[in-house]
């Protein structure tokens, strides 16, 4: 059984930065593809970024390319989302997710475990 815990959310002004972390316990973290998704009020959950076990296959949603960076540290069982140049439209609850077989890409149905989410709010 895998448990995921996100942290690092908060309130920032437009143009600011945040780094989200997601730490996993249980299972074999180094075998998993890891993804970040977000959900704004009244909207469907959407894909943000994904990274495979060896960090050599990475995908981003178009609106965050050049601003967000996903990375992982398998020794720490942690995946990160560095968010720069934040915009008000980035405001959402951000969730990390694990794909046990390593196949998860952009669709949330391809992931097996989810964290509780962390709120990111970008003002002005």
List keywords for this structure.
single chain; 124 residues; mainly beta; 4-stranded antiparallel β-sheet; 11 strands; 0% helix
C-alpha Rg (nearest Å): 13 Å
- What structural class do you assign from the helix and strand content? mainly beta
User: In DSSP terms, counting alpha (H) and pi (I) runs of 4 or more, how many helices?
Assistant: 0
Q: What's the end-to-end separation, in Å?
A: 41 Å
H-E order:
EEEEEEEEEEE
Q: Which outline best applies?
A: globular
Poorly predicted tracts of residues = none
Helix content: under 10%
What's the main sheet like? 7 strands, mixed
Mean pLDDT level: 95
Strand content: over 45%
Number of strands: 11
Explain this structure.
The strands form 2 sheets. Strands 2, 4, 5, 6, 9, 10 and 11 form a 7-stranded mixed beta sheet that branches. Strands 1-3-8-7 form a 4-stranded antiparallel beta sheet, with no helix packed on it. The protein has strands at residues 3-7, 10-13, 18-25, 33-39, 46-51, 58-60, 68-73, 78-83, 92-99, 113-114, 118-123. It contains no helices and 11 strands. The termini are far apart. A hairpin with a 4-residue loop joins strand 7 (68-73) and strand 8. Helix content is 0%, strand content 49%. The chain has 124 residues and is mainly β.
Question: How does the SSE layout of this entry go?
Answer:
Elements: E1 3-7, E2 10-13, E3 18-25, E4 33-39, E5 46-51, E6 58-60, E7 68-73, E8 78-83, E9 92-99, E10 113-114, E11 118-123
Parallel strand pairs: 2-11
Antiparallel strand pairs: 1-3, 3-8, 4-5, 4-9, 5-6, 7-8, 9-10, 9-11
